[in-house]
Amino acid sequence: MSDPSADDPDGTHFTLLSGDSPSGPMDDDRLAELYAYPTELNRCLVRGNAISSLDGGAATDGTSGGLGGEGDRRLFRVLRELADVIVVGAGTARAENYSGAQMTVAQRGNRQRRGQSEVPPIALVTRSGHIEHDLPVLTRTEVPPLVLTCSDAVDDTCTRLAGAAEVIACSAADPAEVDPAAMLAALADRGLLRVLCEGGPTLTGTFVEHNLLDELCLTTAPKLVGGSAPRIASGTGHVLTSMHRAHLIADADGYLYARYTRVG
Description:
Domain Bacterial bifunctional deaminase-reductase C-terminal: 48-254
CATH superfamily: Dihydrofolate Reductase, subunit A
Low-confidence stretches: 1-9
GO biological process, one term: riboflavin biosynthetic process
Pfam family, one: RibD_C
Region (Disordered): 1-28
Number of helices: 8
CATH architecture: 3-Layer(aba) Sandwich
Helix content: 25-40%
Shape: globular
Largest sheet: 10 strands, mixed
Structural class: alpha/beta
Protein name: Bacterial bifunctional deaminase-reductase C-terminal domain-containing protein
Order of helices and strands: EHEHEHHEHEHEHEHEEE
Strand content: 15-25%
Distance between the termini: 46 Å
Mean pLDDT: 92
């Protein structure tokens, strides 16, 4: 039997199991079609991307990297290419050793044709504004990141980072808190409407609790982790949001990739 990825230039054999037109193996262009944002947006559309084990764990040893595979990393790159901005909690950026987004020549061309900048910025969410100036997301990046913080922390954060990032006040009534709607308003003011949220659980949970998560791209890893691993979303609020499965993809390694959109 031949290697199922032999004819796949990206090294991963994806098969569309459900959706508008189930099909066989697909390339990155087909993936980009399946995960495309709506063409006409007049507000931020927030898409979450997360990975979970079969028993619901979102991390091993404190990071999500141990759950991933080649297919997950390939889809991760496609989702980043489609986004205007990549939003992530500062704690997750530290734990996962984030640097700036990287785009290939082909991806840059695709983004230019969609009217996007060549490289999407990373937006770090932090209530305290305590961002170390030597984090890779600040030092190894082609475009400066955004720092979305509360009004009370803006001045100190600006002083500490000394121009290495654009620091944006994102508070509403309480100047000591970051308001998710204010975050999205700030991104929309900058024309960054295609929002990709990469977690962690607290940030994703905040968008869920405020009914601001429009889509969830969920990778299910064929692994069990046990223990007390965190979920993909956490928080103090409890909501019940109905989602519609837009499609389901499988790969040769047993991973499943589902795209869900919010109902209503």
